[in-house]
């Protein structure tokens, strides 16, 4: 009993804790302010804007997947509808000279997302798990196909566009240059991240976790899991709408791809690769996936295949995502036993890398012969030029792949042993619960 | 009018049977493994492309046998080396694994066969009109498709009802844990069911390939409809999947052949509204909204009968 009462009313955090907590947010704000000073080229500003949008979108998705345990295949619906409404709103504001400045416009997108989540969510959230996943997919297809039929509103295949500089100006900000858009996105990202973090600390956020872990128990306690799921769904729709609005402002266009399955899939990829178990996971995922998709597409033609393979690898080998992998090491670092696993990591790294290089080489050679057979066989992938017709290279990729696999498998066992040792060492010191 | 009804019924039943070929595998896999195979439509696509490639090398008939076997073997391998590993991480991880797999398969198919449709032709033996009704020729190949799906349907029914393995599968549909407790090698049955299920989808792919378009986006187009079928029929219900397949097949085929619209029924919209979004709704024909019919049906079913037409389980 004493345990429960003490956890109901936690002691007020110490001053140092508070400082650390608020310091983190202030630090994030400072970093966001200073980023354009360090990387001032137009390309990097665009990248940062995309990352900011992706962070909001992924975090909103994690309200569903990570916090409430609902796997949605149609989250882009609320993102896309937010984007479309914002484009229309910008056009209306511009035409009628309404006194609404651009920084407030994303709110319109958010409210749109909220509205449609309220409308479509009640039916969708009746069940969770696989049924919810299928329903979200069906609803997404319904909306995406309808968007192609309602041409006047959604603009058909081409989409609709707007001019963001025509909106009512506050302090003479025209929002023409990318730097101003960056600050707009950064400001909204910080606001949305703080809001979504706060949401996880509310009783509602806790009930969402309870619904995820044990819906039956939640019913016994006297809550309706359906209602909790519905509210979480509405919040997720709201923030997705904000993300969609920012994307629409950034590109000054909205088209049916915003609503589509690809967009829903990519937010799922980003969130899951980042890690759904921690609040910071989707942020890491959004940054990683945005860089990956921008970077890989320059390096190789078949980047989407690698992307899919990375996702499958994360699902199979690291269900906690990148953050989950990193956070696993925290107790070891605390107990000081991390040194015991580190050597095995370094040993395992070499054959694993060899195996991956073999895999990439084999893939690139096969792709070359499947797609461009007959062209010049001197190709370039990941910045490395090589001759795809060279038989020695074929043999080398096979040796790297197969030999690497067999050696790597042994080293993985070593890592496993070292890991067990380090964990039990940490447990002795009381760092692992 | 009668012509339209007869032709649409024929085509609708055909489409429905094709859907059922895939939905049956999906349903049995879902009931036994508890995982909805997101990549099921990808195996349909693999079947079509394997069929195309093999019929180029050896002809259509070997392709009809080899392509499903090949796809089924891949399916079994996916279960054995992929899904079984992910199983310990829960259903969401399993679903995500098949989602990633569907993505990867689509990419691989695009790399090998390109994005544009491949030239998968009807075998010359079957390239003649079977019969003529109301001055329209009905192609023999479509009758062949219907025949194949009915034969497989019958074989599936007999296997399920009359054989030992069918009994086990049937038992696993309702009491998956009990089957394990009775000492059956559940792992091997799972692998077999997954392999057979994906092979059935591949059969559908081989026979549908020449009649429809064999293209790298065919899985993406058909996949969602397949999930609508299993949800509308009731997750895990085989008879439900059958009814829902035929229903959606008929609904979509009839919708495509109808040209009515609101403007046709109530006269043209007044010109004042011509430029607004109301005009879109007013002028759209039933044929144009045929693609969204299954999803409308899904939403209606979810509102009025959330467990599906013949579903009993609240999953």
Defining key terms:
heterodimer; A: 433 residues; mainly alpha; two-stranded antiparallel ribbon; two-stranded antiparallel sheet; 18 helices; 75% helix; globular; disordered N terminus; B: 315 residues; 3% strand
In short:
The complex is a heterodimer of chains A (433) and B (315). Chain A is mostly helical and 433 residues long. Chain A is 75% helix and 3% strand.
| 3D shape of chain A | globular
| Series of secondary-structure elements of chain A, N-terminal to C-terminal | HHHHHHHEHHHHEHHHHHHEEH
Number of strands of chain B: 2
Q: Overall 3D geometry of chain B? A: globular
Q: How many H/I helices of chain B?
A: 13
Percent of residues in helices of chain B comes to over 70%
Largest sheet of chain B: 2 strands, antiparallel
Radius of gyration of chain B: 21 Å
Based on helices, strands and strand pairing, what is the structural class of chain A?
Answer: mainly alpha
